[in-house]
Amino acid sequence: MDIGTEVGRDKLIEQARDALSKAYSPYSRVSVGAALLAASGKIYTGCNVENVSFGLTNCAERTAVFKGVSEEGESFKIAAIAIVANRDGARFSISPCGACRQVLLEFAQSSGSLCFFLNSDDVLVTKSLTELLPDAFILPTK
User: Fold this and answer.
1) Residues 48-95: pLDDT tens digits?
2) Rounded to the nearest 5°, which phi and psi values hold at 99?
3) How many C-alpha atoms does 117 have within 13 Å on its Cβ side?
4) Which tens digit of pLDDT belongs to each residue from 117-135?
5) DSSP class of 89
6) Which domains occur in the chain, in start order?
7) Is 118 helix (H, G, I), strand (E, B) or coil?
8) Which of 71, 79, 81, 80 is nearest to 32 (CA)?
9) Which of 107, 116, 120, 122 has CA atoms 20 to 30 A from the CA of 92?
10) What are residue 68's phi and psi, to 5 degrees?
11) Residues 6+ apart with CB under 8 A from 18
């Protein structure tokens, strides 16, 4: 899938909407769906899964990343991710939380890997993962 085309972006956003329908969010009532395009060409989806102990909640973005890593192993890399959300049926803008930004950047294919999300006016926002987390925590490698 060519994520640089409108058709590619729309397909990824549609898969994120499908994932949104599976969210478990009885406490916040904020449902989130994510679909990421891996460098391998596979699409992995995720939804948020809340827990009464909020610290045990997992975001949609990390759910999708963890699915990709569990299937592809160390070779897993993110080319792009789309994120959508709603609250009690009303769509609104959602941007990845800080923890998700760090995880997404860890597995980014490149500094230009893209993140798409819809704002409250249904306008598509596009940012690179490095724009979302410009001063990421990075350990030196050997």
Assistant:
1) 999 999 899 999 999 999 999 999 999 999 999 999 998 776 666 688
2) -65, -45
3) 24
4) 866 567 788 898 889 888 8
5) T
6) 6-131 (3.40.140.10)
7) strand
8) 81
9) 107
10) -65, -45
11) 33, 35, 45
* Residue 137 to residue 70: CA distance in whole angstroms: 23
- Token output for 102: 């760090």
Provide the mean pLDDT of the chain. 88
Alpha carbon distances (Å) from 59 to 41, 48, 101, 114, 128: 22, 4, 11, 18, 19
* Residue 96 near residue 115 (C-beta atoms within 8 A): yes
pTM: 0.88
Q: What are the contacts of 105-111 at 24+ separation with CB within 8 A?
A: 105/129, 105/130, 105/132, 105/133, 105/136, 107/65, 107/68, 107/69, 107/76, 107/77, 107/78, 108/77, 108/78, 109/39, 109/77, 109/78, 109/79
> Any idea which residues carry the catalytic annotation?
61
CA 72/CA 127 separation, integer angstroms: 25
Q: For the CA atoms of the chain, what is the radius of gyration?
A: 14
Among residues 99, 33, 107, which one has the least CA distance to residue 66?
A: 107
